Amino acid sequence: MSIPYTITASEPVNQQIYRFLRQDIVTCAIHPGALLSEKEVSTRFNVSRQPVREAFIKLAEAGLVQVLPQRGTFVRKISAQRVADGRFIREAVEVAVVRRAALQADPAALAELEHNLQLQRLAAQRHDSQAFLLLDDEFHRLIAQSIQCELAWETVENIKATMDRVRFLTLSEVSPPESLIEQHQLIYQAIVDGDADAAESALRRHLQEMIFSITPIAEQNSEWFEQV
């Protein structure tokens, strides 16, 4: 079931609708293969169709929906190849970031990372998958922020939407939060120690989890994945 989001005046309407629909698609509240109706979405958020249309375009650019002429807009099924490509690009960017963070992160940045880890543990204890995923993203964003390079995280965020769908599906069994928190802890400790090599190694192991998790998840949810 979709979360009852509220449109506010804090940012452009199309960006809010994009973010809300992205969250619903990533968490499979809107299933792969589902039809998205401009009319229904505009009614749901009580807005005109124009911002909805703009949000659909951005979702298509993120690889989450496909616009088929004369048929409509459909949520894309998950592409294993797109997941692999996104993970490869993400690893290349984040390895560079975490190495620099190990050499540059100041005490204030380290304190924020430590606090984030504490919040991750609380979310895991509550079995709150959505909150955990948001905190997971925030952990990685904070590392980029620690070297004053949030553009690096924005770049990653723009290409990882398909990865996020697999991440959500793996949380219950294949990659439970407790395991991911341990991996985050290793990354954090390497940054604290100023050990760039250890930070890189820990990050690579963390991101490579996706390689091992996608096969069992695709087998369990074959109807949601593109058939090769």
TrEMBL record:
GO molecular function, one term: DNA-binding transcription factor activity
Annotated TM spans: none
Source superkingdom: Bacteria
InterPro entries: GntR_C, TF_FadR/GntR_C, Tscrpt_reg_HTH_GntR, WH-like_DNA-bd_sf, WH_DNA-bd_sf
Keyword annotations: DNA-binding, Transcription, Transcription regulation
Stored PROSITE patterns: HTH_GNTR
Pfam families tied to this protein: FCD, GntR
HTH gntR-type domain boundaries: 11-78
PANTHER family to which the protein is assigned, alphabetical: HTH-TYPE TRANSCRIPTIONAL REPRESSOR RSPR, TRANSCRIPTIONAL REGULATOR, GNTR FAMILY
Record protein name field: GntR family transcriptional regulator
Organism: Winslowiella iniecta
Lineage: Bacteria, Pseudomonadati, Pseudomonadota, Gammaproteobacteria, Enterobacterales
